[in-house]
Amino acid sequence: DVLLKSEIPVVPPPSKSYVLGFSQLGSESTWREANTSSIVEAAEEAGISLMMRNAEQSQKKQFEAIRFFIRNNVDVIAIAPVVQYGWEPILKEVKQAGIPVIILDRSVNVKDSSLYVTFIGSDFYEEGVKAAKYMLDKMRHRTGTVKIAELQGTVGSTPSIDRGRGFRETIGTAPDFQVSLSQVADFTVAKGRKVMSQFLELPREEWPQVLFSHNDDMAIGAVEAIEEAGLRPGEDLVIISIDGTRRAFEQMKEGKINAVVECNPLLGPLLMQATNEIMAGRTLPKQMVPEEDIFTQEIASDEVEKRKY
Ligand code: AHR
User: Fold this and answer.
1) Separation CA 35–CA 267 (nearest Å)
2) Cβ 78 vs Cβ 106: under 8 Å
3) How far from the centroid of its chain's Cα atoms is residue 189's Cα?
């Protein structure tokens, strides 16, 4: 069962302070920085003592952090998993230690869902669907084949897998749309720029008319590469990305990005609330999804100042 954020009852903070061990996957993007800050601030506000480790994109480091939390006998462990697979054995270790687990941001692919209490994070498949729907509408008057370039995030990560799938399955029935270029760019500005400039070194007839970027940072890097190639981002190429950072909104306002699908990183308050509820012995829904939107160029000027990250 899925519960929207607005439907989750607000519970008063408990009198006892708990220790939350949190394995953050890295610091690759603006989204991630906002996510980390949100968790640090919310823990402080809730009076929860936070033990946080940054895994710098390494699943092995996440395992080490989790074993460190077990040794330190924390009350709850939260994990933002870098990749989707390989979690079953470590989650069994945590279960044996009797510590409840919250999966945050990226989901895990495990057969036994009792290995974690709840998952708090976005519906990445739906984000890919929203991006594709926008593109189909925006390009509806185009004739001939529309070539699409895709910048993928971290290999094996849930957002990259699900956004790509949601996007492809939505354009699946539209024969004139073709993902002709697709490369991994690790969710970073530098890689987005590098991969996009490689795309634009191809013969002109292979250049894409659309760029679908799995996050804003890669799209921002790609905008630089597109400008360097003498093209106009947002005009010669329709650009759609995911996250909704302030920087991406500024570029939308300037007409360089056409649409941004929101992915909310401000999960700290919900994580602390879930921690308190678990410790109070309450049952939580298996999945909690923040409310999210899609924003287009037309409304970017009105929205940019409201962005919190
Ligand atoms: O898991 C969420 C994704 O990870 C965000 O879209 C991206 O910016 C981040 O690095």
Assistant:
1) 7
2) no
3) 15
Ligand 1 pocket residue status of 247, Cβ below 6 Å: no
User: H or E element: which one contains 251?
Assistant: helix 246-253
Q: Do 79 and 23 meet the contact criterion of CB atoms below 8 Å apart?
A: yes
Q: Is 31 in the pocket of ligand 1 (CB under 6 A)?
A: yes
82 lines ligand 1 (CB under 6 A): no
Token reading at 111: 């057969």
Which secondary-structure segment (H or E) carries 79?
Answer: strand 76-79
- How many angstroms does the Cα of residue 97 sit away from the middle of ligand 1? 30
Integer Cα distance of 40 and 282 in angstroms: 24
The pLDDT of residue 11 is 59
Helices assigned H by DSSP within 97-188 = 124-138, 158-171
Rg (CA), the chain: 20
pLDDT tens sequence across 68-104: 999 999 999 999 999 999 999 999 999 999 999 999 9
